[in-house]
């Protein structure tokens, strides 16, 4: 385990150098949203060969909601917070491969198909702290622009400039390893042993 | 003297705001205790970030989690309470007032399940559960804004004359299915028996029970202790990235019912937000949590 600052965009080679459990902070540009309709639109853009409304210059896509306010003609982030990534499973392989992403992030992880795509493309998934709004908001340097303004605030496709955004933990690496899959598999494998322990405790109580 | 519309509205609004901008003191203690027992260094770090996030939200008067959820209240009315004004309307109006005045503004989370449309208002909002307290001269209000990041992993099954082993296996399986998804370390609420709706309500109410309180039913006290140990042995850990601290507590209640027994399991994330106050006939407002 190490602690690193990643300057976005990172190359697939840098993504491949990261290991499960590494703690990282991000600097540079990322595109974020917490919206399901946003993922549908993004997938449709890709299918139709249309460019998304904002540029993915940092090759980083975060499942993060942003509440921003216009002050002196510029958008300012009041707070941000991660959302559960698994509900976007169906869209992520296409988004990662077609937009050439090297960083995805959110909470709760992504499924097997995304893990395989990330392995093929050289992309990592970073776990953000749910309920970490005050820590994560400190890492937002600028709201560059918000695409699809017809959507509600947290659903817009928002381009952010980050500075020491984190803490984030590598939870799916670019080699096909997912901490989430490992933990689920290991918990299932331990189930008979855990049930035996429960039986012992029940007998002790009886 | 009486419990007035204004007092009720103001209290309901303040409870909501406070529940978003901090975590219960009891949860801080539980997280601090978990730091002592957690053996994974990375998981300890995550627990420290959680405590730091909660502290910073309080210092800056801002949100721990940006998901303000939708308004959920549990109101118990003392049978000696005198009312002045429409108590039910006071709670509805309190959320409108919160939306109009809270800083920073909250996002839209109230969702119409038929159209997907999001707003600050909707059918059956706020969710309020009403109950009575014999011979009390106060109204007891708990506010527990609910977001379904953790709530979506709740489950209920109706068993046919289950053994304790079957019940415990089910709770464990529901917990493993939730896995890393529900912002652990969580509180797990379980309701056993009664009917479909009653078991679910019992489970929900158990998520509001403070950590460290002893279950008065010895069978359940034993079950709570061993299930906490069992769920922490699964290894999902804080934020589901590995560790010994997946549940801060398993809280269980039961109700008599039929032989066919519903078992309801639900979760609240590590923030475990809830605030509680009592409004007395005298006009005094006592902050309980």
From TrEMBL, chain A:
Pfam families per the UniProt record, alphabetical: Fumerase_C (PF05683)
Record InterPro entries: Fe-S_hydro-lyase_TtdB-typ_cat (IPR004647), Fe-S_hydroAse_TtdB_cat_sf (IPR036660)
Swiss-Prot/TrEMBL keywords: Lyase
Keyword Cell membrane included in the entry's annotation: no
Domain of life from the UniProt record: Bacteria
One Gene Ontology molecular-function label: hydro-lyase activity
Coiled-coil intervals, chain numbering: none
Domain Fe-S hydro-lyase tartrate dehydratase beta-type catalytic span(s) in chain numbering: 6-182
PANTHER family attached to this UniProt entry: L(+)-TARTRATE DEHYDRATASE SUBUNIT BETA, L(+)-TARTRATE DEHYDRATASE SUBUNIT BETA-RELATED
Family note: Belongs to the class-I fumarase family.
Protein name listed in UniProt: Fumarate hydratase subunit beta
Natural source organism: Nitratireductor aestuarii
From TrEMBL, chain B:
Keyword Ion transport attributed: no
Cited InterPro entries: Class-I_Fumarase/Tartrate_DH (IPR051208), Fe-S_hydro-lyase_TtdA-typ_cat (IPR004646)
Limits of the Fe-S hydro-lyase tartrate dehydratase alpha-type catalytic domain: 11-277
Listed GO MF terms: 4 iron, 4 sulfur cluster binding; lyase activity; metal ion binding
Any Pfam family: Fumerase
Top-level lineage group: Bacteria
Keywords: 4Fe-4S, Iron, Iron-sulfur, Lyase, Metal-binding
Protein family membership: Belongs to the class-I fumarase family.
Name of the featured protein: Fumarate hydratase
Species this protein is from: Nitratireductor aestuarii
Encoding gene (name): fumA
């Amino acid at each position: 385990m190490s602690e690193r600052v990643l300057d976005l965009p990172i190359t697939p080679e840098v993504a491949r150098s990261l290991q499960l459990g590494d703690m990282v902070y991000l600097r540079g540009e990322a595109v974020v949203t917490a919206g399901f309709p946003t993922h549908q639109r993004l997938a449709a853009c890709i299918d139709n060969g249309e460019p998304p409304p904002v540029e993915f210059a940092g090759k980083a896509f975060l499942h993060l909601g942003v509440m921003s306010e216009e002050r002196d003609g510029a958008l300012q982030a009041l707070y941000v917070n991660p959302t559960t990534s698994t509900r976007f499973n169906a869209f992520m392989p296409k988004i990662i491969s077609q937009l050439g992403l090297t960083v995805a992030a959110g909470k709760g992880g992504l499924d097997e198909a995304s893990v395989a795509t990330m392995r093929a493309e050289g992309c990592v998934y970073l776990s953000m702290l749910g309920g970490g709004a005050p820590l994560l908001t400190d890492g937002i340097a600028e709201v560059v622009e918000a695409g699809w303004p017809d959507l509600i605030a947290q659903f817009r496709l928002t381009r952010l400039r980050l500075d020491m955004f984190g803490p984030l933990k590598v939870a799916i690496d670019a080699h096909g390893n997912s901490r989430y899959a490992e933990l689920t598999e290991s918990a299932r494998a331990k189930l008979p042993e855990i049930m035996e322990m429960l039986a012992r405790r029940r007998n002790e109580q009886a | 003297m009486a419990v007035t519309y204004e007092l009720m509205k103001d209290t309901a609004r303040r409870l909501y705001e406070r529940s978003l901008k901090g975590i219960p003191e009891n949860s801080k203690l539980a997280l601090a205790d978990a730091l002592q027992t957690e053996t994974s260094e990375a998981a300890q770090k995550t627990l420290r970030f959680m405590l730091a996030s909660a502290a910073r939200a309080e210092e800056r008067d801002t949100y721990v989690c940006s998901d303000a959820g939708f308004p959920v209240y549990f109101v118990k009315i003392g049978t000696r309470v005198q009312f002045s004004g429409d108590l039910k309307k006071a709670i509805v109006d309190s959320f409108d007032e919160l939306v109009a005045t809270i800083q920073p503004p909250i996002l839209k989370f109230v969702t119409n399940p038929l159209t997907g449309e999001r707003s600050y208002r909707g059918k059956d909002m706020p969710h309020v559960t009403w109950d009575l307290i014999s011979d009390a001269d106060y109204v007891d209000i708990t506010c527990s804004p609910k977001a379904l990041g953790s709530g979506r992993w709740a489950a209920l099954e109706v068993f046919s004359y289950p053994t304790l082993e079957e019940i415990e296996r089910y709770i464990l399986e529901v917990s493993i299915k939730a896995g890393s998804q529900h912002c652990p370390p969580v509180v797990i609420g379980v309701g056993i028996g009664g009917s479909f709706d009653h078991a679910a309500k019992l489970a929900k109410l158990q998520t509001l029970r403070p950590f460290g309180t002893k279950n008065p039913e010895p069978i359940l006290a034993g079950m709570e202790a061993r299930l906490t140990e069992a769920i922490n042995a699964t290894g999902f850990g804080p934020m589901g990235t590995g560790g010994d601290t997946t549940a801060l507590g398993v809280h269980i209640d039961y109700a008599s019912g039929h032989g066919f027994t519903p078992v309801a399991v639900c979760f609240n994330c590590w923030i475990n937000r809830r605030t509680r106050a009592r409004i007395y006939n005298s006009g005094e407002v006592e902050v309980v949590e």
